[in-house]
Design a protein that fits this description.
single chain, 98 residues, mainly alpha, Transferase(Phosphotransferase), domain 1, 5 helices, flat
């Protein structure tokens, strides 16, 4: 993963799909699987294909700064911040907890 977030590779990974990374981040911070409230795998696939993102969990609460980062990763590819910005945010949150 360090290669993915290495600033020297910014141009080559700018098109990398960070949506799964942020879905995992959401899962780690909340303790809940994405789409935990949908029972069927088929329904989950249908929801994803419609572009519906997982809900922000209420309990445990995810800090606003973390949720904002997750939402940025879920933007359309060309709207997402550069990977260096994502890396810097993650480093900052790791140190300061927002």
């Amino acid at each position: 993963m360090s290669t993915l977030l290495d600033a020297s590779h910014t141009r080559s990974v700018n098109g990398v799909n960070l949506q799964p990374v942020c879905s995992h981040l959401r899962q780690v911070l909340s303790g809940q699987r994405p789409y935990y409230d949908i029972r069927s795998d088929h329904q989950v696939v249908a929801v994803i294909l419609r572009g519906v993102k997982p809900k922000r969990p209420e309990i445990p609460a995810i800090e606003d700064c973390h949720w904002d980062l997750i939402k940025e990763c879920w933007l359309e590819m060309l709207q997402r911040p550069p990977i260096t910005d994502i890396r810097n945010s993650m480093d900052r949150y790791r140190i300061t907890m927002c």
